[in-house]
Amino acid sequence: MWFSSSFPQSSSQSLTLPATARGDVGDFPAPTPSILPFHVKSITSTSNPFVKHCVKLRNSSSYRHAYGSVLLVGTTPIREMYNFQESMHEKASRIDCLLLHEKAEVPEELVESGIRIVRVSSVVMKKLCGVQSTESIDAISLVRIPSTFHTLDDDRHHDFSKWFPSTSRILVLDGIQDPGNLGTLLRSAVAFGWDGAFLLPGCCDPFNEKALRASRGASFQLPMVSGQWSNLQSLVDGFKMKMLAGDPDGPVSCLTYELACSLIDTKLCLVLGSEGSGISEKAREASELVSIKMVGEFESLNVSVAGGIFLFMLQPQNKEV
Description:
- It contains eleven helices and 13 strands.
- It has helices at residues 19-22, 49-59, 61-67, 75-87, 122-129, 179-191, 209-215, 229-238, 257-262, 281-286, 303-313, and strands at 42-43, 69-73, 95-101, 117-120, 139-144, 149-151, 169-174, 196-199, 224-226, 242-246, 253-254, 268-273, 288-291.
- Helices cover 30% and strands 18% of the residues.
- The chain is an alpha/beta fold and 321 residues long.
- The strands form two sheets. Strands 6-9-8-7-12-10-13-11 form an eight-stranded parallel beta sheet.
- Helix 2 (49-59) crosses helix 3 and helix 2 (49-59) runs parallel beside helix 5 (122-129).
- The chain is elongated and about 65 Å long.
């Protein structure tokens, strides 16, 4: 189970363990060594402890959530994430450190940001990225998991209004294991003005490196809750929401303009399942099943393609693009 991602911001310029990872008691932090001392300006060796820490952040979901940090790879996603956070009155995340290739220029938006910059060699950049070619990758940032991400590991009643400021349209992902599909769906949800995403058991970590790459920063913009079916049912009941589920099989309604118009004033949860298994039996029983009519002789669409169509057609009217 993933860990909570609400971490206090440290006033120190050295990167340290968050309270949940280091065993702090109350408001008194336990004395621990810095992960990256402030005097370090460049890293040239892949054996550096901080490099090993970053590789673990990239490879391990439990490690990411224990530390409350992720690696965001690439100048464009970093720029988009930074600009979005700067536009918000209450910032849900922050860039702790920018790892910049030794020959790269600082992105224009970050020149006056005050964000700590550490130069790294080509071999270190390759190690951090985990890809064979890093020709197009000049920057990696160490970013806090946003406070808009929450994990529920019990059946207690929760006040979802704290996590979803609006509940007009919530995307529900049911066992989406492919990080590319999950990231693309989150990106589409942000693009079409949806209010949040609920991740049911079996979904991959939205801060997985491939999911982050596909989402293009949407994971830092969209409020997300990871929980159980009982939690989702509480959300649906509490806000009197209607559940729709995308399903190409069985007796279903077709997604049409008329259907979308009839639901303009209805609060919706849209459930999408994995390509291999489809939606779960619980989703099938609790939802009105809807399919996308196809002319070509194909069994089904890729879930991220089908999801994009659903998210566009059912987008909230007051946010129509």
